[in-house]
Design goal:
Glutathione S-transferase Yfyf (Class Pi), Chain A, domain 2; 8 strands; binds iron/sulfur cluster
Length: 408
């Protein structure tokens, strides 16, 4: 690794972590510090280690990489930090530094990145999971990565009665079909794990417009999060080109919409892509954000208590908070649960890498859902839905888990 590259990474990290004045506010909110009560699990601890590494007093060892990888990238620290220190971004840059220093982020992340970069493999995985689900073998997939989806049809027959099935959708008061070319961005996780929710999203969009279905690439978050930055940039360029003719790009995955909205920030020093990336980022909307903006009215109002688990990438990542809640208020009896915006412990592959810690975080979420008395917990991110499905099973199926597109 060239010395100039090291200096570049260290400067980027230093610009962030030097703003940390070690006040300790983040210790009270970091979900990991809440489970593993050691300084290095908190933002303050991670920033101190990063600072030590930059100053040469801490060796960039495997132990340091473990500490850097042990982060949900949930931004809870950033939101609560008086200086708004972007510890999550610093961790991503240090992971990138280690991936280049070691020549790879490791076999596991390289394999995951390779799968997500290959559209054929993503489609093949989605097809395989569909078959496994059909023959009831999906639960054999470890880490709950192929949950049995509670479909919109099952939801309506369970909570609204057969009369609601097949009834016509209400017409939205605002028709954007003549004003905007709306494209759907299909996230890999949504396509592979929650096909009924994807159908739900498309059905809703079709009540409003004629959505363009584009065979897009992965949003690149798994690559960015694990140091595969050049793969991330390659996929970003391909997605930018693919969606150039769309006016609005709607995603039903908060991780995708959050990542795609920030793509422009990765091209600020690339004159050939700067403008195109900025134009692309400006077009991105999450599904609840888009539906709220166009004045969409839920197709059914069902007498069921619903609560919302706010994905980190939706609330803290994009500031989209009121939109899903208002849509759910119109669709059923919405109840706000305690800690709705607390991370569920999913965080990409975190729940696979650190199952025990992720489970402790999820236990808190499950208790909050149970205490809310909701029949349904709704979310807008496939990794959250995977975690919540585990919580539902662990609660003895006291509640069902659904994507927002399946209930509105
Ligand atoms: S809250 Fe912010 S400034 Fe305070 S210790 Fe944590 S990261 Fe540093
Ligand atoms: S991003 Fe989340 S897990 Fe990571 S240090 Fe901040 S609060 Fe803790």
């Amino acid at each position: 690794m060239k010395n100039t590259d090291i200096q570049k990474y260290f400067k980027e990290v230093d610009d962030i972590v030097s703003q940390c004045d070690r006040c300790g506010t983040c210790l009270t909110v970091c979900p990991l510090f809440g489970v593993k009560d050691i300084e290095s699990s908190s933002a303050r601890g991670k920033n101190n280690i990063a600072r030590g590494m930059i100053q040469g007093v801490v060796k960039p060892s495997a132990e340091v990489l473990d500490i850097v990888n042990f982060c949900l990238l949930c931004r809870t620290c950033v939101d609560n930090c008086p200086s708004k220190v972007k510890t999550d971004n610093a961790m991503i840059v240090i992971r990138q530094y280690f991936a280049e220093k070691n020549g790879s982020p490791g076999i596991k992340y390289k394999a995951l990145g390779g799968l997500m970069k290959n559209r054929t493999l993503v489609k093949f995985s989605a097809g395989t999971l569909k078959i496994l689900r059909k023959i009831g073998m999906n639960t054999l997939i470890p880490h709950g990565m192929a949950p049995s989806e509670f479909t919109r049809k099952q939801y309506l027959s369970s909570f609204a009665g057969p009369a609601a099935l097949g009834s016509l959708a209400a017409t939205s008061p605002i028709d954007l079909s003549n004003k905007s070319k709306v494209a759907y961005f299909k996230g890999c996780g949504m396509g592979m794990m929650f096909p009924d929710a994807v159908e739900g999203t498309l059905a809703i969009l079709r009540t409003l417009t004629e959505p363009q279905i584009i065979d897009n690439m992965c949003c690149g978050l798994p690559h960015l999060a694990h140091g595969l930055r050049s793969d991330f940039l390659d996929m970003a360029k391909e997605n930018i080109s693919l969606f150039e003719k769309a006016d609005v790009i709607v995603s039903d995955c908060a991780s995708c919409s959050g990542t795609l909205k920030h793509i422009a920030a990765h091209f600020t020093d690339d004159p050939a892509w700067q403008e195109r990336a900025a134009a692309f980022s400006r077009k991105i909307m999450g599904i609840s954000e888009y539906l709220f903006q166009v004045g969409y009215k839920p197709q059914h109002r069902v007498d069921v208590k619903m609560t919302f688990h706010e994905p980190c990438h939706l609330g803290r990542g994009q500031g989209v908070r009121k939109q899903p809640r208002q849509l759910l208020t119109a669709a059923g009896k919405f109840i706000e649960m305690a800690g709705a915006d607390n991370c569920c412990g999913g965080a990409g592959s975190f729940h696979i890498d650190y199952p025990a810690i992720a489970q402790s975080i999820l236990d808190k979420k499950r208790i909050n859902i149970e205490n809310s008395g909701a029949h349904i917990v709704v979310s807008e991110c496939p990794t959250c839905l995977v975690q919540l499905n585990k919580a539902a099973v662990q609660s003895g199926n006291k509640f069902k888990v659904m994507h927002i597109s399946q209930v509105i």
